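Complex 365.
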Amino acid sequence: MNLYLKKENLRILITGGAGFIGGCLVRRLLSTSKAKIFNLDKISYTSDLSFINNYKNKKNHFHLNYDISNPQETNEALKKSDPDIIFHLAAESHVDRSIDNPKPFIESNILGTFNILESARNHWNNLDKKRKKSFRLIHISTDEVFGSLGKVGKFSENTKYDPRSPYSASKAASDHLTSAWFHTYKMPIIITNCSNNFGPFQFPDKLIPLVITKGLNNLRIPVYGNGENIRDWLFVEDHIDALLLVSKKGSIGKSYCIGGNCEKTNLEIVESITNLLDKKLKKEFSHKDLITFVKDRPGHDKRYAINFENIKKELKWKPNHSFEEGLSKTVDWYLDNQNWVKAMQHKSGYKGDRLGLPKTLTKED
Ligand code: NAD
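Predicted structure with nicotinamide-adenine-dinucleotide bound:
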């Protein structure tokens, strides 16, 4: 797949490549291509670059420690990387944190995307004819921009935007800016809207790693509300397959919805993990007993589900991992990498506390 990645001298700029999904993309490209990978990441609580040390061809990885909310730094990163392709993933990414403090979401996700678009436009305008023609900017977004579904129906490329949280509103704004840069300046841009990802290296404030970490340490496992909120889950490696395919064969100016065809309630997710922990750890008690229902997230979207027929038909993409396979791999990874979790918790100061409860709501967990 993606023969273009074999091209010598290909220069790829990944923003947010020290994060969960960006890191997975960096690892994939380092192990399957000869491209030079420029990793623009300001290194925040969720970031980690220690994995680079395990790569033989780490000489092809260049970390650009810049903040995209700063236009000069963003310009500098574009100059240094001189990219043929940009995968733009850098963003504040946690809904609960956006409820606690929306400002960094506006700065990184909206202003940051504006700065990337402007620096990229300047860069693209100055490329020679051949490089200009093949240049692509892939803007990575979320299904959360579409709001919340009722019991039936699925999100598709034609769904109206209706974001409900500061996080999803900031991502929606970044999608609109990206789309405008295509229509106005004819920049070769493609947008992707993906459902919930899971897999190794995800910071333990997100549902799946949080539940694994709590379970491993015999701590109460919090479930918001009645646990009936539904998400559509995708193993992160399958998302990377889709992004690479989109960068090679996607139609300029289009958006692609990417999903796992895997709707689960939060309670189903938590119970799948506690079952796996019971099997793998063989303790005298069931990890299910640790489940505790806590006050719901304010404005908690009820249901997300993605119709990915378009990318399936046009680019022949579909998920390669079943949910069970992906989850088992993920749980194994966290069991084997507790030192990574501890190091991330230590570095960030995050110890698994409840996030996203504004002062007007009572803390009860
Ligand atoms: P993450 O929080 O793990 O990683 C984001 C990275 O971006 C971090 O390393 C962070 O330091 C960097 N970053 C943030 N603001 C920056 C700034 N101003 N300048 C430079 N670097 C900055 O997030 P993730 O889960 O890997 O998500 C990556 C992207 O994918 C985001 O755009 C997110 O909206 C999107 N997305 C995520 C999911 C999911 O389930 N995680 C699903 C669909 C789309």
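The longest strand covers residues 136-142.
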